[in-house]
Amino acid sequence: MNPYVIPGLVVVVLITVGIGVYGLRFARTTSDFLVASRSVSPAWNAAAISGEYLSAASFLGVAGLVLRYGVDVLWYPVGFAAGYLALLLFVAAPLRRSGAFTLPDFCEVRLRSPMLRRLATVFVIFIGCLYLVPQLQGAGLTFTTVTGGRYEWGALLVGLVVTANVAFGGMRAITFVQAFQYWLKLTALAVPVIFLALHWQSDARPAVTPPTGPVFAATTTVEIKQDALLNGVDPVHKGDKLTFAAGEPVPEISSVDHNNGADWLLPGGDTGLFATYSLIMATFLGTMGLPHVLVRFYTNPDGASARRTTLVVLAMVGLFYFLPTLYGVLGRIYTPQLLMTGQTDAVVLLLPEAALGHGHLGQFLGALVTAGALAAFLSTSSGLLTSVAGVVFTDVLHAGRGGSVRDFRLATVLAAAVPMVLSVYVANMDVSQVVGLAFAVAASSFCPLLVLGIWWRGLTDVGAAAGILAGGGSAMAAVLLTVMGPPLSEPLAQVVEQPAAWSVPLAFLVMVVGSLATKRRVPRDIGATMLRLHAPESLRL
Amino acid sequence: MGGDAGGRPARVRVVLGEAAAQRPMADPARADLAEQTPIGEALVKGLVRAQLALAIRLSLVVAAGLGALPLLFAVAPGVGQFKVLGVNLPWLVLGLASFPFLVVIGWAYVRWAERNEQDFTAVICRPEA
To answer: pLDDT tens digit string along B106-125?
Structure first.
């Protein structure tokens, strides 16, 4: 095992706790950490938001998908970044001015409807849990890759650590901790990639797509994970160990779906236009509906700075997303065995040692990316769990003012239990694909609610509820069917696995028609609400 | 909720934003806004419309710039074969160029949205003619 990994992980945890304790000293003096954050500049605030946003799916998943499927999945990083542009254009400043802290709060502020508030609560919990699943999956995968232990233990271990952390208030969502984790994640990918690129240069620049398909760069032993056929003829069995010499082509294995040659290099391939546009719809419009993203917006002092912060976040997130693609591409050359085991999400973790050898440099850089991965799932899952537990605490347990710390801990455990069980269930799915499902549900429930609520006076509570139920509900059903249901045949499978292209327009349509049909229910104070959402604070109205 | 049932007044949650909203109005245009007169309504509607038009225009730019790409690649597969510096064009466009493009659009939006707000503020705070 790599001797640098454990010290690296310990350092990340110590620095995280250290900055957290240091930050708490400031937060205590104001009794409210939101107010403390308001003295923070947009640059720090944006680093914190980016730190919370760049999850295991971004850090590990994107590179894994690129390794497997090639150019078509570049829409994932583009969409993850573009989601912040949609948030900036349609939501950022008015949402901050509304004073809403969570999505259920927004329902209350804009439509004055407790019924809608409850419905929004259900969706926040569902999306939060669904988004926690891939974080734990990433944790389990990292655990298996680094220690060789079982996947389930890794996912459950990290799940328990994060739950304990949030429940005992060990890791409060403090701006500086999250900001530190952004820079750590960026460094952990950027530094190794420089060495990897130099190595590729000095290695006489091996082709990414050789005419014979991917070839092994060095002598490699591959352990087969399940019974399958090699190149469509030779049967292999679970537990078999096959050794390949350097330069041998990587055989096609029937148990792992991936693209080769032109399918990998050129757009189109076997992903249809429908699936691509569905993915674009889900990621572009889903970001604004993620529970942990919205909570962070309240830390800006006013609408104008919410806008500027979002712009900086967009730049920071975009800068980060240059990197995973390079790992996926170089993984094609140096870690092609992952195409046989199917654990493509591990490419970021394995690439430094695979390319640079097991000397000090390779091991050190390997430990650096592992530390970055730890930061990725710690920051995102803590932020998510805190926001979901907060909603469970106020809207499900109705703790409100009288709520005790014990109730909050109960809420945390409740919010963590479901994703932990699910993460064991969906072990075989790609991390980024599960994240894509969470985005699809968010895009077809909260995106229409926010966009219409902010820009259209005619929205009513009945219309909003109908739209959320129709669009979000059907996307939710599609997700459940994908994760737990039987395998579907092709034309139907695409429609169910990538629901956003039909569920988002459906949600908008039902919301508009429903509101027009119940015109009388438009809140009386709509004029005042619109003024509050859109007028600059400098007027002090 | 509130009320003065007992001798002790009920506790009230004080929110900064609400306290600021209750400040008395100094000049007539502000009073128009705060009291929801037809003039005030029209002013706010104008601002909302300007901001929405700006957001929609810029999202159309993104839809044309990025959203049309899958269709383009499907209709004209030759575009994907085209190489710049040895890299196929779709990789450069999606993996590299799309992020600065998004940032530039965002930067333009922030600039123009702030200008819209300044125009609105100027109308409200204009000294009476």
So the answer is: 999 999 999 988 888 888 77
Q: Is residue A532 less than 8 Å (CB to CB) from chain B?
A: yes
Are A412 and A389 in contact by the 8 Å Cβ rule? The answer is yes
| Cβ contacts of A93 on chain B, cutoff 8 Å | 113
ipTM over 0.90: no
pLDDT in tens, A444-487: 999 999 999 999 988 888 899 999 999 999 998 888 887 776 77
Specify which residues A253 forms β-bridges with: A230
Residue type, A502: W
Which residues in chain A are closer than 8 Å to B59, comparing Cβ atoms? Answer: 86, 89-90
- Tokens, residue A433: 């694909």
Residue of A nearest to B122 (CA): A539
Is pLDDT of A533 > 90? no
Q: In which element (H, E) is residue A195 found?
A: helix A175-202
Which residues, 6+ apart, have CB-to-CB distance to A349 below 8 Å? A60, A142, A145, A146, A366, A369, A370, A373
Count of H-run helices and E-run strands, chain B: 7, 2
Query: CB distance B120–A536 less than 8 Å?
Result: yes
Q: How far apart are CA A347 and CA A365, in angstroms?
A: 13
pLDDT for A264 beyond 90:
no
Taking the mean position of all CA atoms in its chain, how far away is CA A82? 14
Domain boundaries, chain B: 27-124
Report how far apart the first and last C-alpha atoms of chain A are (Å, whole number): 63
Best A62, A71, A285, A450 member to test B by mutation, with max B CBs in 10 Å, is A71
pLDDT exceeding 90 applies to what percent of chain A?
A: 14
Q: How many CB atoms lie within 10 A of CB A370?
A: 24
By CB atoms closer than 10 A (0-12, 13-18, 19+), residue B116 is buried
Amino acid at B85: L
pTM of the model: 0.85
Condensed to tens digits (0 to 9), the pLDDT of residues A360-404 reads 888 888 888 888 888 888 888 888 888 888 778 777 776 555 556
**Residue burial A492-513, b: 16+ Cβ < 10 Å; e: rest:** eebbebbbbbbbbebbbebbbe
Q: How far apart are the first and last CA of chain B?
A: 45
- Evaluate if residue A305 carries a pLDDT over 50: yes
